[in-house]
Structures are given as C-alpha cells and as structure tokens.
Amino acid sequence: MVDSSDSQLSNEHVSSSSISPYPKCGFDVDDIENKNSRFKCIFCSLLIQEPIQLIECGHRSCRGCFEARAAVAPDENVTCPYDDCNVKTNISQIMPDKAFKKELDILKVACIHRRDNRCNWEGLLNDYQSHLDEIHMQYICFECNESFSSQAILNKHIRKNCPRIFAACPLAPLCTEEMIRKTDFMHHFFSGRHQETINKFLIGEYHFTESSTQEQHMELDAIDKEFEEKISQQITNLSKTMQIINDKTVEITNDFTSSNKRFSTIVQEISNAHLSLLEKIPIKHSIQPRQVQLQKDIENLQQICTASEYISTDGTLTWRIEHVSEKIADAQSERQTSILSPVFYSSHTGYKMRARLFLFGDGNARRTHVSLFFALMKGEYDAILKWPFQYKVTFCLLDQTGNNRHIIDSFYPDVKSNSFQRPVDEANIASGIPKLFPLSLLLQDDNVYVREDTMYIKIMVALNETPKMLLPFVLTLNPALPNHIQENLIKQEIVRRQQQPATVDNSQPTPMNI
Q1: Which CDD domains does the entry mention (predicted)?
Q2: Nearest-CA neighbor of 9 among 154, 157, 143, 145?
Q3: What's the predicted TM-score (pTM) here?
C-alpha cells in the first residue's frame, strides 16, 4: 500500500464511486481512463504499484491488492477477476515482475489534482509518490472521510454538504422531529409539509417559545441569505443567457434571409447541373466497367509493391521482435505459445520460408529453453524448384552490445522428412532447434540479447555453402550494407585467410567497422 496521506486521498477518490472491502493500492492519476489497460491492476483498476505476475494465468496486479485478498481467502487462494479467467492463484505462486516495473517507471503521468486545477505536475510514474509526499496536504472530513484542498472548503463541506451529517429542521418540532441530512435540506424546505408549517406560523396557528424562536430565526436568516445569493447568481446567469440568445436570434434572422437568396440561386444551378448530368450518363455507363477493372488492377499492384518492399529475397532474414516481456508472458500463460516471422525468400523466384519462435519453449523444451523452427511455405514457383529442400539453415540470436557474443546454431534438412518436401498445404510442419537458448538466461535482467524489450534473430539459408569458421565474421558485418557488398567482403575474407600461413589461427573474425 501507499503510505503517504495523499495516496490515501487518491484511493478514497476512486473508492467513493465503487465501494470495496479491500484497499486500492495502485496509483490514481489524471486521465487514468485513457491509460493502457495492460498497466492497470486487475483488482483495483489503478496503475500498478509493486507489480507482481500470477504464474498460473500470467495476469498482473499490485502486490498490496493481491496480499489483501490472500489474507482473508481460504487457503490463501485468490481468484483472478480478469474477464472470464477465474484461475485460482496461491500466494506462493506469484513473482515480482521487474521487467514490467521498468516499463511502469518510465510511464508519463499527471497529478490526480489536475482534475480540479489544483496541480499541474507532470512526470514519470517513478517520481509520482515523491511528488505526492512533498507537495500536497490533506484535509479530511472525519464523518465521510472525503479529502479537501483547504480548511475553508472543509468547513463549508461540514456546514452544508456532508452527506453523513444530520440536523433538525429550523421549524422543529412543529414541522418534523426527524433528523435531516444537510444535503437534503433544500428538498425538505420546498416540501409540502414544511410549506404548510410556514403558512400556519404566518396566520398565527403555530407559536414558538422565545428561545426556540431566536434559534430558528438565526437558521432561517442564514438560509434566506443563501437563497438570495443563489437567486441573484441565477438571475445574473439568466440575463447573460438572454442577451446571448437575443444576439443569436438577430444573427440567425440575418443568416436566414441571406440563405433564402442563395437557395434560389442554388436551385437554379442544381437544375442546370441535373440537365448536364442527364446528358453525360450514357458516357459514364460506357466507361464504368473499364474504370472498375482499372481500380482493381491498381489496388493489386499497390499490394504487390507494398509487400515486396519489406520482403527479403536473398535467403536471409533479420527478424526484429518487440514487446518481448509481454510475448513471454503470453507464451507462459498459453494465450499465444508461438509467434511467426515475416515471410522471406531464397530469391525472387525461389523457396518461400518463415520461422516460428516459442519464447517459453515447445514440447520437452517447454519452460527450459527458447525453441526456434524453420518452415517451408507453398510458393508460386515451387513447380520449377529442386525438391526436397536440402540447404543448411543457421539461426543466430544477436548480441546487442557489440561484443559479438551471438548464439549460433545450424541444422541440415532431413531430406526424408515431409517438412522438406514440396508443400501441399499452405505451409509444411516446422522443423528446427527445440533448445536454442536457455530460458533462464533470457529472463535475466540486463542480458545482452534483449534491449529496450526488443530482440533480434537472424536466419540464414546457405544457398552458397559458407564455411562454419566464417560465420562469426559474417555476423560482424554491418547489416546496413547492401547484400552484394557483404558478399564481396566475405569473398575477400576467404581469399585473405587462404593467403595466410597455415600456422596462423584463422578462427577469429576480422572486425569490420564499415
């Protein structure tokens, strides 16, 4: 839970509209309804504080919200309220979500008090609690626990508006002896019962004692003054509104007169245009079928151009994977166990291929390793290609620190497997490396393969066999270089190594800072 007094204010602000027996431990900020729902606690619907992840279903909540429910739940099992999830999670089956907390810490927020123009602070969620502790004071009504920005506003609330403070009618006991909410006084004053009591008092049918009369006069004087202020304000507002209405009426009248004149002109123009259109309809009917066909051709060409602009056609694919932590959580909870790479080709008229990644592992490797597979897809030129597919496939999990500590693994196709025959369906069954990389290393903070929640995987199909010893060198080449330049650099490196004496160790790549 948040300890500061202003955090209590935020929690009470939300709970005033939805009563709950549990505290709301998240951060309440301005414009919270437009914040991404993935940053909100599944219990209190506020921005998550101390994020934890429920291992069984993968959903996230505040630590305080979960522990408050676990403390009173049978066997400390809490039911997930997200949509129709309803998975029960024990307090021993939660884990801190450090990667998600980093996303929360840099989330831009505005102070909750911006709603009533009391504060214009904006900043990162990581700094929000310090702002609340340092800037905002708390004035609380002990009857209803509502908070206010000043003592004067609190006093006015207690005197007139608190829904939990009751008082007697100024005409009691003749009107009623019941205690009335202060917020209901105006409604009571206009009630038939109260009006009847006033009438009987005015005609002398009711009489008050001297002491009670003085008290009631004081109450009535205060009420009269309040009525006068409200009526005066309403009269002022109505006068302004009437002036605006009068001005608008004059403006509308002038516009209407002008519109009538324009309308006559427009009617004549429409009539002339209609005659002109009637003359052109036969021409339109004659060209319409060709126009429709041309539009379809243009759309098809646009789709082809758009698709080809981003498709690799040299047998290599550098796959950029964003939102890695979210995709791992989806794979862990089995909402989406795998993701597919973009399609790529061995050439413009070559094999059509794609990769399939299991971030939480597949089969026997589930929960222990990252699994990566390669799949052949049904292509337009399959009839003229050589089958079965028999080219070596190399997977590279790229080091993003520049130290070239890439994870590299390769496999040769099993030419007897259906996975590498000519595709009959949309895609063959994927085949590859179930244990590409230990999952425990990928989940570590600050690992070299995930930066800014993004990872890169390079897939290379060896159409021209590249010696295994050259793979580290190939991965040092700048990916921004065109393919033909990279191929020339590889050829130069092969020649250079062949010219070196046999005693020289050629296993280390020559760094290329081009």
Answers
A1: MATH_TRAF_C
A2: 145
A3: 0.40
How much is the pLDDT for 414? 94
Give buried/exposed letters for 277-290 (b at 16+ CB in 10 A, else e). eeeeeeeeeeeeee
- Give the Cα separation of 401 and 403 in Å (integer): 6
Q: Which residues, including other chains, have CB under 8 Å from residue 393's CB and lie 6 or more apart?
A: 374, 410, 411, 412, 413, 432, 459, 460, 461, 462
pLDDT, mean of residues 319-341: 95
379 C-beta neighbours (distance < 10 Å), count: 18
Q: Which residues are registered as beta bridge partners of 356?
A: 340, 373
For the stretch 189-236, pLDDT in tens is 788 888 888 877 777 776 665 444 544 554 555 555 555 666 677 778
340/320 Cα distance (integer angstroms): 11
Average pLDDT, the chain: 81
Q: What tokens were used for 257?
A: 């007169």
Q: What's the distance, CA 393 to chain centroid? A: 37
Q: How far is CA 105 from the centre of its chain?
A: 15
Q: Detail the DSSP E strand segments found in 262-411.
A: 316-321, 339-340, 344-345, 352-358, 369-377, 393-397, 407-411
| Both tokens assigned to 78 | 């809490």
- Based on its alpha-carbon atoms, the radius of gyration of the chain, rounded to whole angstroms, reads 38
Angle made by CA atoms 227, 232, 234, in degrees to the nearest 5: 95
- Does residue 99 carry a pLDDT above 60? yes
Q: What are phi and psi of 81, to 5 degrees?
A: -90, 0
Start-end of H helices in 34-109:
63-72, 98-105
Convert the pLDDT of each residue in 23-80 to its tens digit.
678 898 998 999 999 999 999 899 999 999 998 898 999 998 898 888 878 788 899 9
Amino acid (one-letter) located at 7: S
Kindly state the tokens that stand for 228: 């006068």
Q: What is the 3-state secondary structure of 491-503? A: HHHHHHHHHCCCC
Q: Measured between alpha carbons, how far is 174 from 168 in angstroms, rounded to an integer? A: 11
Coil/strand/helix, residue 357: strand
Query: Between 389 and 166, whose confidence is greater?
Result: 389
d(CA 219, CA 227): 12
Q: Could you report the per-residue pLDDT of 451-500, keeping only the tens digit for each?
A: 999 999 999 998 776 666 776 777 777 777 777 787 788 778 878 887 87
Query: Number of H helices and number of E strands within the chain?
Result: 12, 20
